[in-house]
Amino acid sequence: MEAGLKLFVTPRRFRVVPEKPLVGDFDEEARVRAVPDSITTKGMYFDALMAQLGERDVQAVWSTLKKAPRHGKYQPFLDYPFADALRWLHAVGHKRYPSLPLLEALRRIGRDTVKVFLESKAGRVVKTMTVGPRESLLRMPKMWKATDPQNVISAVEPEPDTVRIDIEGFPGWLDCGVIGTLEQVVMNHHHAPELDVELLGLAKGNITVRWR
């Protein structure tokens, strides 16, 4: 993926496979500031992100938040600015993967969110179901709606072993974390994913997922 120190370059089309990292730089602050205040996300992942940072890093992020949680603790089902989520994600990306480009670090965090979900009570129930990549990917719009209801997401099966997901949402996360999430969904079923990505804006695009 080619990117300069810009907010976003459109359109962009590229193919992603698990063994090849995402590369390129972007203006972190510009990305965060570009997220409208109306875009929110539920607080269920915030505390887990904070727990991966040291006290100094937490305080550094805290001072930049649009809406810090009351009493210092996020509530899982309350809405918080998506821009604040990006700030925590960026900090964790730098902390956990300091030698990687931030896009690749965020992609790996996207993979980790799937692993964390599967260890939750709801995730353990999902694991008991006999489903494959097809069924799991087709369910992603409904899953994402639970945490990010403003997003417009649809999934279709254009051909066997292929699911196309159209997304309007996840500004600043679509070209990295969402990619990691979708490929991890496939890898959890012991298949090798290949993603064709078309980005039409900071928060709009489509990803066609194939597996073998």
> Helix fraction?
25-40%
Q: What's the number of helices? A: 9
- What name does the CATH topology carry? H-NOX domain
| Helix vs. strand class | alpha+beta
Terminal CA distance reads 23 Å
Number of domains: 1
Number of strands: 7
Average the pLDDT over all residues and give the rounded result. 88
Secondary-structure element order, N to C: EHEHHEHHHHHEEHEE
The CATH architecture can be named as Alpha-Beta Complex
Beta-strand proportion: 15-25%
CATH class type: Alpha Beta
Largest beta-sheet characterization = 5 strands, antiparallel
C-alpha geometry: globular
Radius of gyration: 16 Å
- Reading side by side through the largest sheet, how are the strands ordered? 1-6-7-5-4
Task: Lay out the secondary structure.
Layout: E1 12-16, H1 28-33, E2 40-42, H2 46-50, H3 55-62, E3 79-81, H4 82-96, H5 102-118, H6 121-127, H7 133-138, H8 140-147, E4 152-159, E5 162-168, H9 177-187, E6 193-201, E7 204-211
Antiparallel strand pairs: 1-6, 2-3, 4-5, 5-7, 6-7
Helix pairs in contact: 4-5, 5-9
